[in-house]
Amino acid sequence: MEIKTLCLGILALGDATGYEIKKLVAEGSFSFFSEASYGSIYPALSKLTKDCLVTCKAMAQEGRPDKKIYSLTDTGREALNHSLKRAPGPDKNRSEFLAAVLFAEAVAPERISDLIEERILEHKQKIHALGELLETDMTPGSKFVIEYGISMQRAALDHLVKNREDFEKHTMSGQNNETPARTTTAAH
Amino acid sequence: MEIKTLCLGILALGDATGYEIKKLVAEGSFSFFSEASYGSIYPALSKLTKDCLVTCKAMAQEGRPDKKIYSLTDTGREALNHSLKRAPGPDKNRSEFLAAVLFAEAVAPERISDLIEERILEHKQKIHALGELLETDMTPGSKFVIEYGISMQRAALDHLVKNREDFEKHTMSGQNNETPARTTTAAH
DNA sequence: GTGTACATGTAAAGTGTTACATGATTTC
DNA sequence: GAAATCATGTAACACTTTACATGTACAC
Q: How much is the average pLDDT of A77-94?
């Protein structure tokens, strides 16, 4: 999902400033399945304004840049509607953790236990954080989505707790720190 | 995780060509938590070779470009080890599906049911595909990681099956296709 | 004969992040 | 007095994808 569509969609939920969009994406209902920095949001909003998909009202403020409140136009709503008709692209899940687990197996198996330990803590923290979000954030959609996030975090946590011992046992026995199993050609 | 580190790690599991790395990332143990195209892999391998983190043996072939088999050097192994010492960055989960659900709530609630229906099918297919992978792919690490993927897919599937009815009921009653609830300022 | 698998590589275009620039106000 | 919150914006850089370029060989 490109940032422009993301902004368009967020504005369909209500008027907002660039700053507020950033907060939603960083801490709100969007936090666990999207990302965007100011450096991408502000240009996106400018472009959308230029293309007449949103309008912008500048509100003067003292000691601060004007607050710019963006609203979706009818054209913008149509455009969003149009892009919702196509099936959403597949999820993109990038996990340095999982990669680290696979790599550590070959290069530093003694690291795996710590890796999993820390991960478990992170999941617990995230479940807690999402739980708190649930208390503020209340449209059926955000509720559904945040609860989805909680389900996923719990599933990851459960998997780690249930399978770590078995996995660690396997990697311990094979302690091959400096000489990994080299198969003919990459038969992983 | 940048592509260079990804290549380095994959080569720690065994020698491979760029083509094989691409396949691993597209269909193998890495498929559900990383991504990379030829356009990023080949340049990455060149750079790694230039920096002496990997070496490259060209194998002549008939009617095809030389097959270039890359191997990790000791320096490369050290570099990988070094980067494994830092805690892995947080996962990046981008989901057009979840965004579409949130946006559809405001703009086209009648679309939600289809969206979820298709999603359920996709999860079932992915669970099946990962199950098949399990039968070929067998180091404890890949097994652990693929089973992790299956757990996550199952959790998503379960969540959708269990919560869709309740959620759809809520969005149906509020049928606000053309006039979404506009709060003062983005209180989603 | 059509499509897929094999096999590498480059260039242009797209998309995004990071760091910088600016500065008041409020909370600890 | 230090740090966070509010508020916008640009420029340089990083990274990646897409499309192109170039073929052979085998399966259906």
A: 94
- Domain of A100? 96-173
Check if residue A19 sits with its Cβ under 7 angstroms from strand D: yes
Q: Do B51 and B120 have their domain in common?
A: no
Q: Which of B94, B101, B145 sits opposite A92 (nearest CB)?
A: B94
- Interval A99-150: pLDDT, tens: 999 999 999 999 999 999 999 999 999 999 999 999 987 899 999 999 999 9
Cα separation, A178 vs A175, whole angstroms: 9
Which of A29, A56, A85 is a domain's end point?
A85
User: Straight-line distance from CA B17 to C1' D4, in Å?
Assistant: 49
* Across all strands, nucleotide nearest B67 (CA–C1'): C7
pTM: 0.91
Looking at the structure of chain A, the number of domains it has is: 2
Q: Which of A55, A85, A115 is the last residue of a domain?
A: A85
